[in-house]
From TrEMBL:
It is a multi-pass membrane protein. This is glucomannan 4-beta-mannosyltransferase. Its main location: Golgi. One of its GO terms (biological process) is cell wall organization. The lineage of its organism: Eukaryota, Viridiplantae, Streptophyta, Embryophyta, Tracheophyta. It comes from Oryza brachyantha.
Amino acid sequence: MSSGGGVAEEVARLWDELPVRVDWAAVEAQWAGARALVVVPAVRALVAVSLAMTVMILRRYKWLPIGAATSSSSDDDDKEEKEEEAAGLVAAAFPMVLVQIPMYNEREVYKLSIGAACALDWPADRVVIQVLDDSTDPTVKVSNPIIIPFFSIKNILFLLDLVEKECQKWQGKGVNIKYEVRGNRKGYKAGALKEGLKHDYVKECEYIAMFDADFQPESDFLLRTVPFLVHNSEIALVQTRWKFVNANECLLTRFQEMSLDYHFKYEQEAGSVVYSFFGFNGTAGVWRIAAIDDAGGWKDRTTVEDMDLAVRAMLQGWKFVYVGDVKVKSELPSTFKAYRFQQHRWSCGPANLFKKMMVEILENKKVSFWNKVHLWYDFFFVGKIAAHTVTFIYYCFVIPVSVWLPEVEIPLWGVVYVPTVITLCKAVGTPSSFHLVILWVLFENVMSLHRIKAAITGLLEAGRVNEWVVTEKLGDTNKTKPATNGSDALKVIDVELTTPLIPKLKKRRTRFWDKYHYSEIFVGICIILSGCYDVLYARKGYYIFLFIQGLAFLIVGFDYIGVCPP
């Protein structure tokens, strides 16, 4: 006992002799002063800004369904009349149409879009199918990977360039299809589209139909869209709706369907009816080539070349038409990694474009004042900046932090009523998934973490501002096995080997911590801790929301969303 007492006394003596002492009472007093002067006013300011932005978003979300609904009946009748009237013009003299299919390493889906484009109902001498292949993947671009069977070193399998072979197959059937490649990927998709317009045979074309590699238009697509352009020379673009072939594959694809259905059913429809303008979706649309030239052509200054062209065309006075009755089948990204890259591009690009064009929009003399207000305020600021900003700052930061600060109060209407109305307005786009609306909102809040980072990156033009990662498509790789007979059969060639054609493959092990998303895990833990503090001390009643929102972050953080790639 005496030795133990001596150790304690020695520790106390050494503590007293330390040159630096912590005065916890002083620290607490300093924190109280900083909290009163800085922290609380800053959080209150964030609450005020968040509530103001929430009201902006509410006004926009309430207006869009009303605008689309009030005009739908009369607009549908008008579209039918225009389509019937213009169909006669098209039948009398079919205009020359170019169908562009840009692709990059689309091994799983390239046959879908090429086959669908070649099956379009249009005179063969009045349409040109142009496949713009920027592929670099050896399994797509070079001879299909050299495979050495384990039973014999002599048998080696070769497969011709997949995309080029598919084009040659359709050429043999009499289809006017062109396979175009370029020496580099400068400008990514915009660069490929721009390069594709330089060919001599394009000069004969009046319109361009565009499809990404996973899009499959119905055979009557041109018959139902080109008439709008033929009938009205003021129309630059006819945009159609996307239909998702894998919407029911997993919860991630269901959530995407809900978001995109609202976008097409209300945002695009209302923009078309009220302002004759909306953002081009980059695919499943038909452009007038003269309008593209008038707007300055394709530009690769941002990762949203489609929106860039649409805004410049609108500022030149061109009009757009959205035809929701025409639906084009496509595939949603079903892995969280692919979806996250896609959302970065879709959030960073518009913010970067807004920064580059905000002054140009205000100085434009060719469009009306209210069209400029819509473009600057509704389309860009509220739709592309405020929506991403307020979702994360308000629901994932301000509300959890307010639990720790008794001085900060958030009105009930800002916590419950307004968010509920916004959610219900967005949920009407997909009534069949209404039972998933709470899970969908929680997931959208999680994704706001990436969207706000991407939007800030675009505004500051920093880091990954020009990052372009093609959205990975799985096609039918999870459902079917590749064909091994018929025209797609592999050719077996016997050769004598003196040296190995490929190096010995080494199995790469994925470390378990590489599978997780640590930013989501960190935010989820912080929100759950705020919920615990609310239960034990604050008692503001936010803990139910905080617990389930924190859990949603953790589920995504541990990668329990989407499917695993094959």
